[in-house]
Structure formats: structure tokens, C-alpha cells
Amino acid sequence: MKIACILNPNSGIGRNPLKEAEEIQRLLSERGHRVDLFTPANAAEAYERARAAVEGGAERVVAVGGDGTVHQVARALMGTEAALGIIPKGSGNGLARELGIPSAIDPACRILDEGQVRILDIGTFGDRFFFNIACIGFDALVGQMFNARGEDAPRGVLPYFFLSMRAFQQYRAQPTTFHVDGDTFVRTPLMIVVANSRQYGWGARIAPSAEPDDGLLDLTIIQNVDALRVLYHLPKLFTGQIERMPEAECRRAMDVVISGDRPLPVELDGEAVPSENVLRLGIIPARLRVCAPREGQVSGLLKFPLPKIPKEMEPFFRPLLPRQKLQSSAPRPELR
Ligand SMILES: [Mg+2]
């Protein structure tokens, strides 16, 4: 099979992109595939490389990176016969987690030829697209603050959490009109999520009933509440029970129009996009072929190992970390 890999060396934390590239090249070549590996300098080049790979006859175009890389490759692949592969190397890995693709390179590579090809829907935002989640309001503001810190700033769930607390002081909710499949209502939301898959990443399921191939979008509206209230309900995000938060409203839809007096911040698959007073979201059913594991192909334990904790934060988390194992082969020091 002809496989192209688009490797983003900057996504995620604690990586060795050079080693990853060698391993991917070796594993896929050993399995008899013709492999081309590209390391694009930016998002636009990632899209162009993926596009060129499809035109060159690649049957799989693999995003090696985070949700941003997946977004660019998916955009180039939609509506074509080529299937998107994912080797998840980002911090959130929303779509990869949703599909059950492990972050370890060997099993992720096996999914490219031994897995199944699923045909997923695509979300639309005006003339743009999203494959995982569109965030509008507070969480888009947090994402924008997170990305504005530059590439060297610490990534992962903890810095994200602390930044959220700061964003609470900045964010101003506004009365917003929703037109959802012919139904009209007004809310003053903290945040609005229009989801193709269930989660942001990190297992945070903001649209727990969403399925990426049911031809429908899942809309989650969280009413404007204070930071303490959000913190209290935060565990529900990770247990898939956000629908049980009294201020949460979840529904399915095909067309969503959201309007307000001021443009709300918007992020598509974690990337900020220009916003307007009226936002139109929709869905194109069955438009993107994606390599996913077969039932039972990947064991639960393999999927995502615990995230690495940055060195400087370790003292805070020492009580929670697994104890270092004693090397059984090393002789124990003798007591004197
Ligand atoms: Mg759906």
C-alpha cells in the first residue's frame, strides 16, 4: 500500500520526532508498504503535502501529531478514496481517543492495514470544516489563550486548567439566540459545543452521546455559571455524565444557527477561526474515510498511557505518582 505520513514535530510533549519518524518508516516498510514521510513547517504545508499525497495515489495519509495535524490532513482527504490514518502525538488527541487509536507507534501503525475503514461525517462552520469539535464561547477563549503562549509554553491538561481559571475573569457571557432545526430559543451560555465526536481530548466528553458517523451534530450548551460551579461539575466531563449537570443542555441537530450582539470566540478542532455575530453550523454525512481499530484489536491498557507530568510540577503530584519499582536484579544493600 502507498502510505504518506505527515509528521508535526511540534505537537504534544516529551517527544523525539526523529526517532518516531525512523520507527514509523521501519515498521511500515517491514509490513510491505511504500512510505513517504514529510515534516511540514506549518499547518498550510501539512494540508498541501496531504493533498499532494492523495493526488499521487496514496491510499493512507497519516497524521502524526495532535488534533491540529489531524484537522489539516482530514481537510485534504475529505471526499476522496484515501483514508486518514492517525498516530496520536498531541496533548488532547480528541478524534484518536474517540476512535480508540493508541498513542504507541507499533499498534497505531497496525491499524493502517489491519484495522477497519470507517466513514465519518464532517461538521461545517460557514465555509470551514471541523472533524472533531467546534467550541464557541468560554472554552474557545481558553484555547486561544493557550495557543497564544507560543510553542515552548508547557502543554497538557494542567496548564490548560490553570489558564481556564484566568479566563473566567475575562469572559463576558451574552444573550444568544439559537435556531436549531427550526426550533428557536434564547440562552446566556458560558459555552457552546457543536460536536462530531464526544470529546475535546484527554477523555473529556463534552458531548457524551455524539457519534461521528450518525449524520447528526451534538449540541451542548452550558449556561453561564461561575468557576466554582464548573469545578464542582468538572468530574462529570470525564465520567461522560455532563448531561446530568443542571445547567447543561444537550441535543442532536443537523443545522445550528447561533447569533448574538457580539462575535463569540470560535475554535474548530482546537484552532481559532475568525468569528461573526451570526454563526452557521451544519453537517455533511459520510464524507471522510478514517482508519480505526477493529473491535477488540487494541486492548484498553494500550490506548493511552498516563500523561507525562512536567518535571517542575512533579513535587505537587508526588503523592499521586506510582512508586518507583525497585530493580529486582540489583543486590540489596546489606545492613551493617
Ligand atoms: Mg454525530
| Count of individual domains | 2
Number of helices: 10
Helix content: 25-40%
**Poorly predicted ranges:** 321-336
> Structural class, from secondary structure content?
alpha+beta
CATH architecture of the largest domain: Sandwich
Strand tally, please?
16
Radius of gyration: 21 Å
> Which CATH C-level class of the largest domain is it?
Mainly Beta
Mean pLDDT: 89
The main β sheet shows up as: 6 strands, antiparallel
Indicate the overall shape. Answer: globular
Order of helices and strands: EHEHEHEHHEEEHHEEEEHEEEEEHH
CATH topology of the largest domain: Tumour Suppressor Smad4
Calculate the terminal CA-CA distance, rounded to whole Å: 64 Å
Outline:
The protein is an alpha+beta fold.
Explained architecture:
- With 336 residues, the protein is of the alpha+beta class.
- Helix content is 29%, strand content 29%.
- α1 runs parallel beside α5, α2 runs parallel beside α3 and α6 packs across α7.
- It binds magnesium ion.
List the helices and strands and how they pair.
Blueprint: E1 2-7, H1 17-30, E2 34-38, H2 43-55, E3 60-65, H3 67-77, E4 83-88, H4 94-99, H5 105-114, E5 116-125, E6 128-130, E7 133-137, H6 138-147, H7 157-170, E8 176-180, E9 183-187, E10 189-195, E11 217-223, H8 227-239, E12 248-253, E13 256-259, E14 266-268, E15 271-273, E16 278-292, H9 300-303, H10 314-317
Parallel strand pairs: 1-2, 1-3, 3-4
Antiparallel strand pairs: 5-6, 5-16, 7-10, 7-14, 8-9, 8-13, 10-11, 11-12, 13-16, 14-15
Helix pairs in contact: 1-5, 2-3, 6-7
Bound molecules: magnesium ion.
Magnesium ion binds at residues 121, 196, 210-212, 214, 216-218.
